[in-house]
Amino acid sequence: MRHFDLSPLYRSTVGFDKLFSMLDTASGVEGSASSYPPYNIERLAENSYRITMAVAGFTEEDLSIEVKENALTVIGEKASEAEGEKDYLHRGIAARAFERRFQLADYMRVDSASMEHGLLHVDLTRELPEAKKPRQIEIKGSGSSKTLEGTTH
Description:
Molecular chaperone IbpA; Immunoglobulin-like; 10% helix; 10 strands; mainly beta
């Protein structure tokens, strides 16, 4: 049987976690790979998420966050330092430019972004429109009325 590695999709999408969990369970796929800059995606509540990126060495002015259609893009570019300004004996803190894209599920909204201790936090919320939320449908008939639980699509 073929195994498909869905981890690249799982790491770059937010709000599709239930779908990917089902696919991972069905296919038995596990594992992850890292890339620069490292990041976490966590679920804070049922419809609330946080992306945390390790951006040591960057300031708020070096970072930009853009949401366009269903894509969240975080770009980091350091202001160029003058040549010969610093004489490094070892340079282990990466300060290279990056662009990280996250594909967002429908109805995801970016609430806020903050930076603390070299970590960039981007908070997101899934807001389903009223027409997409589960609701109860009343069944009318002769005699007594009953209700049927259902969802709209």
